[in-house]
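Researcher: I'd like a structural prediction for the single chain below. Treat it as a standalone chain; there are no partners to consider.
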Amino acid sequence: MRLRTLCALALIAGPASAADYLGSHTWRPEWHGAGGFSALWLDADGAGFVVLSDRGGWVRGTVSRDAAGAVSGVTVADRGPLLRSTGDDLRGLERDAEGIARAGEAFYVSYEGVHRVMRHSDIAGAPERFEQPDAFEGLQDNSGLEALAADAEGRLYAIPERSGALNRPFPVWRFDGTDWAVAFHLPRDGRYLVAGADIGPDGRLYVLERDFALIGFRSRVRSFDLDGGDGRTEIESGLAAHDNLEGISVWRDAADRLRVTLISDDNLRAIQRTEFVDYALDR
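Model: Treating it as a single chain, here is the predicted structure.
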């Protein structure tokens, strides 16, 4: 076996990890400037998707899956630029979309660079402005609202990439429909930074984290209850098993398995790849 395959199969599991690696698929979109995909939303059956690029674009489509349940192909339905609330294209640092969540019929998008969360009735249309805390403005450059999730009640959860110090916990901001407040903190392991989040059909918050070493990335998914307790390590990959995983979606398949699908940000570099990765959790 190739080293990459061996790494992908060798999970650093530990007693709290209960994940089966199902497979990976390299996606090679055929238009100029494709890549940089840093956020992923999947519908309830894991087929329809929306991905966001940190260059300020969106793509909608469907994925096909192989016998194991891993992504094996991608069909694009449409794509376009993310917009300002005025309807104009985003510019410069405004474009750095990092998280996506759906609450009701609306999509929400979190950004770093210009730190904010925007509401879209249609991802292709102009967003609406809504309440934002002043504290978002003080987030670190290039380390802002990396992760966004929504619970069954429509509340939003936003997490910055960095907490500000090596052992300082990550704040989790919650929007209850009226106000933002720090609902709880998640413990930080100094090796890992936040890359994405989703709330699964089991009502738990799943947080995708990544660490970079000289030969590549390692990734981890932890889950928590919605008060930040009962922390569990669900997935921990070997170094260089996958590329730069940044987007996460958690769903249930037809066999009632809890599934985790991830996507990597290739940073628009030839030495990296856009990769869909699938795991199944043992519950």
